[in-house]
Amino acid sequence: MRILAFVAGVSCLFIVLLDAFETIILPRRAVGRFRLTRLFYIATWAPWVFVVKRFRNPRRRESAFSFYGPLSLIFLLVVWAGAMTIGFALLFYSLGSPVIDPHQVSALQSDLYVSGTTIFTLGLGDVLPSNQWARALVILESGTGLGFLAVVMGYFPVLYSAFSRREVSISLLDARAGSPPTAAELLRRHACKSAEEALSMLLMEWERWSAELLESHISYPLLCYFRSQHTNQSWLAALTAILDTSALLVAGAKGQGTRQAELTFAMARHAVVDLAQIFSLKPINDAPDRLPFDRYQQVYGVLTASGVKACGDGQCIDRLREMRLLYEGYAEALSLYLRMPLPPWIAERPFKDNWQTVARVRTEADRAVAAPGGSNEGRSAGPLIPPAHHPHDF
Question: Looking at the predicted structure, is the pLDDT value of residue 323 above 90?
Answer without folding.
Answer: yes
